Every structure is written in structure tokens, then in C-alpha cells.
Amino acid sequence: MRHGVRFLMATALVVPLGFIASAPGAGAAAGTNCAHSSGTATFTPPLPKLGAGTTVKPKIKLSASKAKSCTGGGVASAKLTGTQKFHDPTNCDILLGGTPGPHPPTGTLTAKWNTGATSTMKVTLNTVSGQPTQTHITGTVSAGLFVGLHVDQTIAFTPKSGDCVSTDLASVTFAEVTHLVIS
């Protein structure tokens, strides 16, 4: 009899754990890995062209940006929006010379997933040594799906022909160098 009571008590404690582990969304905390991302980033004000001798502290705004081919976390793709801010004065000489100031740009990135869920991320745009047209994005999901998980991706950006050389740099297109990983 005593063994039967112990078994029933143990079962009563363990069975709810199985329901929690199998609940919808229980695996979402594992994060996601998106193989492709691309979009446009606009600088306001534009970065002064090479040799201009002036600097600005622009904001960067994402538009027409997306992540796709995502696996894990129950999502497949996302529309990306966000705004980041330079904290140190910059221009095309500094950007392409790979000599940024000591405070990298920071801001937010929001993913609106194909499921309707959103993730808001606080990110930092870090330089990539020896790669002046690449940015290593790191941060943490601060709200929504995947909250508390880390964000990591390196992107390459491409200016329009003549930008930074004959005209100020107003916008760039970007694409992944590494997957967008939220883990």
C-alpha cells in the first residue's frame, strides 16, 4: 500500500512536467537560425564623402529588410526594422579606414516573424577587423519571442556606385556573411 501511494505521488509530480514540456511554444526558447538576411540601411544625415573633412553622428534606419530560411523556434522568416545611432563622429574616411571611435553604434532591431510574433533586440554594431564593409551585430532579445537570448550575425554592406567617393553615403544594401543566430 505504501509503495502504491508513493507511486501515485511521484506520478502526480511528474505528469504535469510532461504537459509543460510539450506545451505549444515550449521549444521556442531554443532560438532560431536564419540562413539569409538582406535589406537597406539609410544614414541620416549621410556620411560625408572621402576627403570632406567633416564628421556626423548619423542614425541608421533599416527598410525593406528581411530574414528568411529560418530553422528552429517555430519561425521561418521575418521582416526586420530598426534604428541604430552612432555615438562617435564619423565619415567615409573613418568608415572605410576601419578606424571607428571607441563607442560603436547601438540601437534596436525588431523582427516581425511569419507567425505574427515579434522579437525586439538591443544590438551593437561592431567593426570586423580588416573588413571595413562588414559589421558584426551582437546583442540580446529584450522583449517578445526569444526574450533573453543572444543575437549574433555578421553582414556585408554595399554602397551605390560613387557613394563615399564622389557623393556622401546616404544608404547601403546589406546581406549576410554569417547566419542570423538567436540562441
Description:
This protein has 183 residues and is mainly beta. The chain is built from 2 helices and 9 strands, in the order αβββαββββββ. It has one domain. Strands 1, 2, 3, 4, 5, 6, 7, 8 and 9 form a 9-stranded antiparallel beta sheet that branches. A hairpin with a 5-residue loop joins β6 and β7.
Molecular shape: elongated
Number of domains in the coordinates? 1
Rg computed from alpha carbons, rounded to a whole number of angstroms: 22 Å
The amount of beta strand, in percent, is over 45%
Which regions contain 5 or more consecutive residues with pLDDT less than 50?
1-28
* Total number of beta strands: 9
Q: Summarize the amount of helix as a percent range.
A: 10-25%
Order of helices and strands: HEEEHEEEEEE
**Quick one: biggest sheet?**
9 strands, antiparallel
- On the 0 to 100 scale, the average pLDDT is 87
End-to-end separation in angstroms reads 47 Å
Number of helices: 2
Helix/strand-derived category reads: mainly beta
